[in-house]
Predict the structure.
Amino acid sequence: MTTPEGVIEGSARIAHPELTADQKAEMLMVMQQLTGKMDLSLPVALAEEYPEFRLQLAPLIKQGLLVEQGDRLVLDASMKDLVLDVNGVEIPLPPLLDAAGSLPKKAPLVGAFL
């Protein structure tokens, strides 16, 4: 996407390996083998020009999930083995299902970090 302040670029991909029927039956959680990659890059000038937008980005910047690289704000994330690595900040992802296949009483909000 192109703005007057510059280009905003991003992509996201989540994958899971092919499993045989036997492998599927043995797995407690599909999520354990998910892998992913996400990147986002936007001009610092965009945040500087729009204070409301900067306020929305501030928590991500403070947590190191969005970092300044030259004239860009960048998020570079990958996911493997139930760990989300965002610009070097590792966030363990708790399983969404317990061993019995039930949701935990309080499922964490992973989106609160992103």
Q: What stands out?
A: Confidence is low (pLDDT under 50) at residues 107-114. The longest helix spans residues 51-62. Strands lie at 2-3, 6-7, 9-15, 35-43, 67-69, 72-80, 83-86, 89-92. Helices lie at 21-26, 44-49, 51-62.
